[in-house]
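Let us practice reading a record.
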Amino acid sequence: MREEKQIERIMGKKILRMEKRELEGISSINNLVALKRCGIYHIDVTYDDGSSSELLMKIKSNNVIKNGINLVSGKDFRLMKEMALHKKVLGYDKSYLREDILYRGIDPSLKKDMIDYCGCFTDRRSHTRNLLFRYYAWEVRKPDAADLWEVLEHILPFHVRYMGQEAEAAELQLNRYTSRDYDKARPCLRMMFDLREEENHRAYGTERVRELHSFIERIHEEEARYSAFKTFTHNDFSARNFFVRGEEVLFYDFELACYQIPEHDVAELLIYECGTATDEEIREILHRYYCRLRESSPYDLSEAEYHERLLFCIREFVVNRLSLLRIVSESIEIDFIEQLLINTNRLLDLFQQKECEGGLS
Protein backbone atom coordinates (compact mmCIF):
# COMPACT_ATOMS: atom_id res chain seq x y z
CA MET A 1 0.00 0.00 0.00
CA ARG A 2 2.86 2.37 0.81
CA GLU A 3 4.28 1.77 -2.68
CA GLU A 4 0.90 2.48 -4.30
CA LYS A 5 0.62 5.77 -2.43
CA GLN A 6 4.03 6.86 -3.65
CA ILE A 7 3.16 5.99 -7.25
CA GLU A 8 -0.13 7.89 -6.90
CA ARG A 9 1.82 10.92 -5.71
CA ILE A 10 4.22 10.76 -8.66
CA MET A 11 1.57 10.09 -11.32
CA GLY A 12 -0.97 12.50 -9.81
CA LYS A 13 -3.83 9.97 -9.98
CA LYS A 14 -5.55 7.58 -7.60
CA ILE A 15 -4.85 3.90 -8.33
CA LEU A 16 -7.80 1.54 -8.71
CA ARG A 17 -5.76 -1.58 -9.50
CA MET A 18 -2.04 -2.34 -9.79
CA GLU A 19 -0.14 -5.45 -10.91
CA LYS A 20 3.61 -5.66 -10.34
CA ARG A 21 5.89 -8.37 -11.70
CA GLU A 22 9.62 -8.84 -12.15
CA LEU A 23 10.84 -7.99 -15.62
CA GLU A 24 11.88 -11.15 -17.43
CA GLY A 25 15.36 -11.60 -18.84
CA ILE A 26 17.07 -9.18 -16.46
CA SER A 27 20.41 -10.29 -15.06
CA SER A 28 22.91 -7.86 -13.55
CA ILE A 29 24.85 -7.06 -10.43
CA ASN A 30 22.22 -4.55 -9.38
CA ASN A 31 19.54 -7.23 -9.22
CA LEU A 32 21.56 -9.36 -6.82
CA VAL A 33 23.77 -7.16 -4.68
CA ALA A 34 21.04 -6.13 -2.26
CA LEU A 35 19.84 -9.70 -1.71
CA LYS A 36 16.65 -9.34 -3.76
CA ARG A 37 15.98 -5.79 -2.58
CA CYS A 38 17.12 -4.54 -5.93
CA GLY A 39 15.53 -5.25 -9.30
CA ILE A 40 13.48 -4.07 -12.25
CA TYR A 41 9.69 -4.45 -12.38
CA HIS A 42 6.94 -4.07 -14.96
CA ILE A 43 3.88 -2.43 -13.40
CA ASP A 44 0.38 -2.28 -14.96
CA VAL A 45 -1.72 0.44 -13.37
CA THR A 46 -5.41 1.30 -13.77
CA TYR A 47 -6.55 4.62 -12.32
CA ASP A 48 -9.95 5.59 -10.91
CA ASP A 49 -10.57 7.97 -13.84
CA GLY A 50 -10.53 5.00 -16.25
CA SER A 51 -7.05 5.66 -17.65
CA SER A 52 -4.15 3.25 -17.39
CA SER A 53 -0.39 3.16 -17.77
CA GLU A 54 2.48 0.71 -18.00
CA LEU A 55 5.48 1.60 -15.87
CA LEU A 56 9.00 0.32 -15.39
CA MET A 57 10.21 0.52 -11.78
CA LYS A 58 13.95 0.32 -11.20
CA ILE A 59 14.99 -0.26 -7.61
CA LYS A 60 18.45 0.97 -6.63
CA SER A 61 19.97 0.03 -3.29
CA ASN A 62 21.73 2.74 -1.28
CA ASN A 63 24.20 -0.02 -0.43
CA VAL A 64 24.88 -0.93 -4.07
CA ILE A 65 28.54 0.13 -3.90
CA LYS A 66 29.34 -1.81 -0.73
CA ASN A 67 27.38 -4.90 -1.76
CA GLY A 68 28.71 -4.81 -5.32
CA ILE A 69 32.31 -4.70 -4.14
CA ASN A 70 31.67 -7.57 -1.73
CA LEU A 71 30.10 -9.65 -4.50
CA VAL A 72 32.78 -8.97 -7.09
CA SER A 73 35.86 -9.28 -4.90
CA GLY A 74 34.73 -12.41 -3.04
CA LYS A 75 37.18 -13.28 -0.28
CA ASP A 76 40.10 -11.41 -1.81
CA PHE A 77 40.38 -8.64 0.78
CA ARG A 78 43.27 -6.96 -1.03
CA LEU A 79 41.11 -6.60 -4.16
CA MET A 80 38.14 -5.48 -2.05
CA LYS A 81 40.26 -2.71 -0.53
CA GLU A 82 41.51 -1.56 -3.94
CA MET A 83 37.97 -1.51 -5.37
CA ALA A 84 36.66 0.47 -2.41
CA LEU A 85 39.46 3.01 -2.79
CA HIS A 86 38.99 3.40 -6.54
CA LYS A 87 35.24 2.98 -6.99
CA LYS A 88 35.18 6.21 -9.01
CA VAL A 89 37.35 4.81 -11.84
CA LEU A 90 35.39 1.55 -11.70
CA GLY A 91 32.15 3.52 -12.27
CA TYR A 92 30.45 2.85 -8.92
CA ASP A 93 30.60 6.37 -7.51
CA LYS A 94 27.10 7.84 -6.83
CA SER A 95 25.48 5.44 -9.30
CA TYR A 96 22.49 4.75 -7.08
CA LEU A 97 21.32 8.38 -7.08
CA ARG A 98 22.70 9.78 -10.34
CA GLU A 99 19.75 8.90 -12.59
CA ASP A 100 17.14 10.88 -10.66
CA ILE A 101 19.34 13.99 -10.65
CA LEU A 102 20.27 13.55 -14.30
CA TYR A 103 16.79 12.95 -15.71
CA ARG A 104 15.45 15.99 -13.88
CA GLY A 105 18.38 18.28 -14.66
CA ILE A 106 19.46 17.44 -18.19
CA ASP A 107 18.92 19.95 -21.00
CA PRO A 108 15.24 19.59 -22.08
CA SER A 109 16.24 19.41 -25.76
CA LEU A 110 17.87 16.02 -25.09
CA LYS A 111 14.92 14.38 -23.35
CA LYS A 112 13.31 13.39 -26.64
CA ASP A 113 16.08 10.78 -27.01
CA MET A 114 15.64 9.41 -23.47
CA ILE A 115 12.90 7.18 -22.12
CA ASP A 116 10.18 9.10 -20.26
CA TYR A 117 11.03 9.53 -16.60
CA CYS A 118 8.18 9.92 -14.11
CA GLY A 119 9.99 10.40 -10.80
CA CYS A 120 11.29 8.49 -7.81
CA PHE A 121 10.63 7.75 -4.16
CA THR A 122 12.79 6.50 -1.31
CA ASP A 123 11.94 3.42 0.72
CA ARG A 124 13.78 3.93 4.00
CA ARG A 125 12.87 0.49 5.31
CA SER A 126 14.73 -1.31 2.52
CA HIS A 127 17.30 1.48 1.93
CA THR A 128 16.35 1.73 -1.73
CA ARG A 129 15.58 4.47 -4.21
CA ASN A 130 12.78 3.49 -6.62
CA LEU A 131 12.73 5.15 -10.04
CA LEU A 132 9.64 5.10 -12.30
CA PHE A 133 9.77 5.22 -16.10
CA ARG A 134 7.30 4.72 -18.90
CA TYR A 135 7.43 1.06 -20.02
CA TYR A 136 8.56 0.38 -23.59
CA ALA A 137 7.92 -2.95 -25.31
CA TRP A 138 10.18 -2.47 -28.34
CA GLU A 139 11.74 -5.51 -29.91
CA VAL A 140 15.27 -6.16 -28.67
CA ARG A 141 17.55 -7.17 -31.54
CA LYS A 142 21.20 -7.13 -32.45
CA PRO A 143 21.96 -3.79 -34.16
CA ASP A 144 23.47 -3.85 -37.64
CA ALA A 145 25.86 -1.25 -39.09
CA ALA A 146 22.99 1.10 -40.05
CA ASP A 147 21.63 0.90 -36.51
CA LEU A 148 25.05 1.68 -35.04
CA TRP A 149 25.23 4.85 -37.09
CA GLU A 150 21.72 5.90 -36.01
CA VAL A 151 22.70 5.38 -32.37
CA LEU A 152 25.79 7.58 -32.77
CA GLU A 153 23.73 10.22 -34.58
CA HIS A 154 21.41 10.35 -31.58
CA ILE A 155 24.12 10.43 -28.91
CA LEU A 156 25.95 13.21 -30.81
CA PRO A 157 23.69 16.01 -29.45
CA PHE A 158 24.59 14.93 -25.89
CA HIS A 159 28.29 15.13 -26.78
CA VAL A 160 27.91 18.51 -28.48
CA ARG A 161 25.68 20.11 -25.83
CA TYR A 162 27.96 19.40 -22.86
CA MET A 163 31.41 19.61 -24.47
CA GLY A 164 33.60 21.70 -22.20
CA GLN A 165 30.71 22.37 -19.79
CA GLU A 166 32.37 21.11 -16.63
CA ALA A 167 30.19 23.12 -14.22
CA GLU A 168 26.95 21.80 -15.76
CA ALA A 169 28.34 18.25 -15.72
CA ALA A 170 29.03 18.64 -12.01
CA GLU A 171 25.42 19.75 -11.42
CA LEU A 172 24.23 16.55 -13.13
CA GLN A 173 26.46 14.54 -10.72
CA LEU A 174 28.31 12.99 -13.65
CA ASN A 175 31.23 10.81 -12.68
CA ARG A 176 34.58 12.22 -13.75
CA TYR A 177 37.96 10.54 -14.05
CA THR A 178 41.25 12.46 -13.87
CA SER A 179 44.84 11.43 -14.49
CA ARG A 180 45.29 11.53 -10.70
CA ASP A 181 42.44 9.00 -10.29
CA TYR A 182 44.02 6.71 -12.86
CA ASP A 183 47.46 7.05 -11.28
CA LYS A 184 46.13 5.91 -7.93
CA ALA A 185 43.97 3.15 -9.50
CA ARG A 186 46.83 1.44 -11.36
CA PRO A 187 47.38 -1.27 -8.69
CA CYS A 188 43.64 -2.06 -8.78
CA LEU A 189 43.56 -2.26 -12.58
CA ARG A 190 46.70 -4.38 -12.64
CA MET A 191 45.28 -6.76 -10.04
CA MET A 192 41.95 -7.15 -11.86
CA PHE A 193 43.59 -7.71 -15.25
CA ASP A 194 46.09 -10.24 -13.90
CA LEU A 195 43.39 -12.35 -12.23
CA ARG A 196 42.74 -13.84 -15.70
CA GLU A 197 46.38 -14.03 -16.82
CA GLU A 198 46.12 -17.40 -18.54
CA GLU A 199 42.93 -16.42 -20.33
CA ASN A 200 44.50 -13.07 -21.31
CA HIS A 201 47.31 -14.85 -23.14
CA ARG A 202 44.83 -17.11 -24.94
CA ALA A 203 42.57 -14.23 -25.97
CA TYR A 204 45.13 -11.54 -26.82
CA GLY A 205 48.50 -13.27 -27.26
CA THR A 206 51.67 -12.71 -25.27
CA GLU A 207 52.79 -9.58 -27.13
CA ARG A 208 49.45 -7.79 -26.73
CA VAL A 209 49.24 -8.74 -23.04
CA ARG A 210 52.68 -7.17 -22.61
CA GLU A 211 51.41 -4.02 -24.36
CA LEU A 212 48.35 -3.91 -22.09
CA HIS A 213 50.54 -4.25 -18.98
CA SER A 214 52.63 -1.36 -20.26
CA PHE A 215 49.44 0.61 -20.90
CA ILE A 216 48.30 0.14 -17.28
CA GLU A 217 51.63 1.54 -16.06
CA ARG A 218 51.22 4.72 -18.11
CA ILE A 219 47.40 4.99 -18.16
CA HIS A 220 47.45 8.18 -16.08
CA GLU A 221 49.87 9.83 -18.52
CA GLU A 222 47.73 8.74 -21.49
CA GLU A 223 44.58 10.09 -19.84
CA ALA A 224 46.26 13.46 -19.34
CA ARG A 225 47.15 13.55 -23.06
CA TYR A 226 43.59 12.82 -24.15
CA SER A 227 41.69 14.96 -21.66
CA ALA A 228 40.68 17.77 -24.04
CA PHE A 229 37.08 18.15 -25.24
CA LYS A 230 35.44 16.25 -22.38
CA THR A 231 31.67 16.00 -22.42
CA PHE A 232 28.60 14.04 -21.34
CA THR A 233 28.95 10.31 -22.06
CA HIS A 234 26.57 7.44 -21.38
CA ASN A 235 29.41 5.16 -20.22
CA ASP A 236 27.49 1.88 -20.48
CA PHE A 237 26.83 2.09 -24.18
CA SER A 238 25.52 -1.28 -25.32
CA ALA A 239 22.30 -2.47 -26.97
CA ARG A 240 20.99 -3.37 -23.51
CA ASN A 241 20.63 0.35 -22.88
CA PHE A 242 18.95 1.73 -25.98
CA PHE A 243 16.00 0.98 -28.25
CA VAL A 244 16.34 1.30 -32.05
CA ARG A 245 13.31 1.36 -34.34
CA GLY A 246 14.14 2.65 -37.81
CA GLU A 247 15.53 6.14 -37.33
CA GLU A 248 14.07 6.40 -33.82
CA VAL A 249 16.45 5.78 -30.90
CA LEU A 250 15.79 6.01 -27.15
CA PHE A 251 18.49 5.80 -24.47
CA TYR A 252 18.12 4.65 -20.88
CA ASP A 253 20.13 3.43 -17.88
CA PHE A 254 22.33 6.49 -17.29
CA GLU A 255 23.53 5.42 -13.84
CA LEU A 256 27.18 5.32 -14.98
CA ALA A 257 27.00 8.57 -16.99
CA CYS A 258 30.36 10.32 -17.01
CA TYR A 259 32.17 13.51 -18.01
CA GLN A 260 34.91 12.25 -20.29
CA ILE A 261 36.04 12.26 -23.94
CA PRO A 262 33.26 11.50 -26.47
CA GLU A 263 35.36 8.79 -28.12
CA HIS A 264 34.59 6.64 -25.08
CA ASP A 265 30.96 6.15 -26.16
CA VAL A 266 32.00 5.49 -29.77
CA ALA A 267 34.58 2.88 -28.75
CA GLU A 268 32.26 1.24 -26.23
CA LEU A 269 29.41 0.94 -28.73
CA LEU A 270 31.71 -0.84 -31.18
CA ILE A 271 33.22 -3.05 -28.47
CA TYR A 272 29.76 -4.30 -27.54
CA GLU A 273 28.06 -4.34 -30.93
CA CYS A 274 30.55 -4.52 -33.82
CA GLY A 275 29.92 -8.24 -34.41
CA THR A 276 27.45 -7.58 -37.26
CA ALA A 277 29.57 -4.90 -38.98
CA THR A 278 32.42 -5.42 -41.45
CA ASP A 279 35.79 -3.72 -41.00
CA GLU A 280 34.92 -1.36 -43.86
CA GLU A 281 31.60 -0.45 -42.22
CA ILE A 282 33.41 0.25 -38.93
CA ARG A 283 35.86 2.55 -40.71
CA GLU A 284 32.98 4.39 -42.38
CA ILE A 285 31.06 4.78 -39.10
CA LEU A 286 34.15 6.17 -37.34
CA HIS A 287 34.91 8.59 -40.16
CA ARG A 288 31.32 9.88 -40.39
CA TYR A 289 31.11 10.41 -36.66
CA TYR A 290 34.42 12.30 -36.65
CA CYS A 291 33.19 14.62 -39.43
CA ARG A 292 29.87 15.25 -37.67
CA LEU A 293 31.59 15.94 -34.33
CA ARG A 294 33.99 18.44 -35.91
CA GLU A 295 31.27 20.34 -37.77
CA SER A 296 28.90 20.47 -34.78
CA SER A 297 31.20 21.29 -31.83
CA PRO A 298 34.47 22.94 -30.74
CA TYR A 299 36.25 19.61 -31.46
CA ASP A 300 39.25 20.50 -33.65
CA LEU A 301 41.56 17.47 -33.53
CA SER A 302 42.90 15.72 -36.61
CA GLU A 303 41.44 12.37 -37.59
CA ALA A 304 44.73 10.66 -36.61
CA GLU A 305 44.44 12.19 -33.11
CA TYR A 306 40.81 11.05 -32.94
CA HIS A 307 41.94 7.49 -33.74
CA GLU A 308 44.62 7.67 -31.02
CA ARG A 309 41.96 8.64 -28.48
CA LEU A 310 39.72 5.78 -29.64
CA LEU A 311 42.61 3.35 -29.17
CA PHE A 312 43.12 4.67 -25.62
CA CYS A 313 39.41 4.06 -24.91
CA ILE A 314 39.53 0.48 -26.22
CA ARG A 315 42.58 -0.35 -24.12
CA GLU A 316 41.05 1.32 -21.08
CA PHE A 317 37.91 -0.78 -21.53
CA VAL A 318 39.98 -3.99 -21.67
CA VAL A 319 41.92 -3.32 -18.47
CA ASN A 320 39.03 -1.73 -16.58
CA ARG A 321 35.41 -2.56 -17.52
CA LEU A 322 36.11 -5.89 -19.19
CA SER A 323 38.37 -7.02 -16.34
CA LEU A 324 35.57 -6.16 -13.92
CA LEU A 325 32.93 -8.00 -15.97
CA ARG A 326 35.13 -11.08 -16.17
CA ILE A 327 35.46 -11.13 -12.39
CA VAL A 328 31.71 -10.61 -12.00
CA SER A 329 31.06 -13.53 -14.36
CA GLU A 330 32.36 -15.87 -11.66
CA SER A 331 29.29 -14.99 -9.55
CA ILE A 332 26.72 -14.00 -12.19
CA GLU A 333 26.25 -15.57 -15.59
CA ILE A 334 27.21 -13.06 -18.30
CA ASP A 335 26.71 -14.54 -21.74
CA PHE A 336 28.57 -11.89 -23.78
CA ILE A 337 32.06 -12.03 -22.21
CA GLU A 338 33.52 -14.23 -24.96
CA GLN A 339 32.15 -11.87 -27.63
CA LEU A 340 33.73 -8.88 -25.87
CA LEU A 341 37.11 -10.63 -25.90
CA ILE A 342 36.70 -11.26 -29.64
CA ASN A 343 35.50 -7.72 -30.36
CA THR A 344 38.22 -5.94 -28.37
CA ASN A 345 40.92 -8.05 -29.99
CA ARG A 346 39.48 -7.33 -33.43
CA LEU A 347 39.30 -3.58 -32.83
CA LEU A 348 42.83 -3.46 -31.42
CA ASP A 349 44.00 -5.25 -34.57
CA LEU A 350 42.05 -2.82 -36.75
CA PHE A 351 43.63 0.23 -35.12
CA GLN A 352 47.15 -1.04 -34.59
CA GLN A 353 47.50 -2.44 -38.11
CA LYS A 354 46.66 0.98 -39.51
CA GLU A 355 48.73 3.15 -37.13
CA CYS A 356 51.75 3.09 -39.45
CA GLU A 357 49.50 4.01 -42.39
CA GLY A 358 48.20 7.18 -40.73
CA GLY A 359 44.79 6.07 -39.49
CA LEU A 360 41.74 4.05 -40.48
CA SER A 361 40.22 6.14 -43.23
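A brief commentary: Residues 72 and 330 are 8 Å apart (CA to CA).
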